[in-house]
Write a structure and sequence with these properties.
mainly alpha; Arc Repressor Mutant, subunit A; about 75% helix; 2 domains
C-alpha cells in the first residue's frame, strides 16, 4: 500500500517543503503515521484509501512543521517603544471589530495556520481564504490610516 501511494506522499511532502533533507524527514514521519493506522487503511478500497492516506499524511506533515517552526528572536538591545504597543493594541481592537468569519480568518493566520487549514476550519476554499485575507488586510490598512 505504501509503495503504491509513495508518489502521493512525496508530492504532499514537496508541497510543504522544498528542502531535500526536510522532505525526507517529513516523508518518514508521514509513513510512520500511516503504518500506525495500517489496519484501518487496509480495510478500505482504493479511492477512500488514497483519500485517507492524503489526510493522515498531510496532518502529520503539518504537525511536524509546527513543532520545528523556527522563530526569529529580536536583538538583545531591542526596546519595545510605547508607540509600538499602542499600534499593536489598536490593530487588535480593529481586528476585534471585524465581522465573522473575517475575525476568525485573521486570528487563525496570526496563529500560524496556512490557507488550507484556515479554509478547513471556516468552511472555505484555499483560494477564497487568500482573497478574503487580501481584502481584510486592505480594510485594516485603510482603517489604521484614519
Amino acid at each position: 500500500m505504501l509503495h503504491r501511494h509513495r508518489g502521493l506522499l512525496f508530492s504532499l511532502c514537496r508541497h510543504y517543503s522544498r528542502r531535500g533533507l526536510e522532505i525526507d524527514d517529513l516523508l518518514q514521519e508521514a509513513t510512520l503515521a500511516l503504518w500506525r493506522d495500517r489496519e484501518r487503511l487496509l480495510s478500505l478500497s482504493a479511492v477512500p484509501q488514497a483519500a485517507l492516506i492524503w489526510k493522515i499524511g498531510r496532518n502529520k506533515i503539518i504537525d511536524c512543521l509546527r513543532r520545528e517552526k523556527e522563530t526569529e528572536t529580536l536583538p538583545e538591545d531591542y526596546e519595545v517603544v510605547d508607540e509600538d504597543r499602542t499600534l499593536l493594541r489598536e490593530l487588535h481592537e480593529r481586528i476585534a471589530l471585524l465581522d465573522e468569519p473575517d475575525r476568525t480568518i485573521v486570528r487563525l493566520q496570526l496563529e500560524g495556520y496556512n490557507y488550507v487549514e484556515i479554509g478547513d476550519r471556516v468552511g472555505m476554499t484555499e483560494k477564497n481564504v487568500s482573497v478574503r485575507l487580501v481584502r481584510i488586510k486592505e480594510k485594516l490598512r485603510k482603517s489604521m490610516e484614519i
